[in-house]
Design a protein that fits this description.
Number of helices: 1
Largest sheet: none
Low-confidence stretches: none
Mean pLDDT: 90
Radius of gyration: 27 Å
Strand content: under 5%
Distance between the termini: 91 Å
Keywords: Membrane, Transmembrane, Transmembrane helix
Length: about 60
């Protein structure tokens, strides 16, 4: 009976280790995707602000 409990604890420990590793990888991947998306958004906004000032805003009739 003792070895069944020890075996179950080892299996549970390995399952938690694998699950924690997968969750950690997904969290890091989502974090990096968010950082890259933020940088691209800010770059696009800055480019639009710089090039938008060069155009004259006249109303043509």
């Amino acid at each position: 009976m003792f070895w069944k409990i020890v075996g179950a604890l080892i299996v549970a420990w390995i399952a938690f280790m694998v699950l924690g590793s997968v969750i950690g990888f997904v969290f890091k991947a989502v974090l990096w995707i968010g950082i890259i998306g933020g940088v691209l958004f800010l770059g696009t906004a800055a480019y639009g602000a710089i090039t938008g000032k060069k155009q004259s805003k006249r109303i043509s009739r």
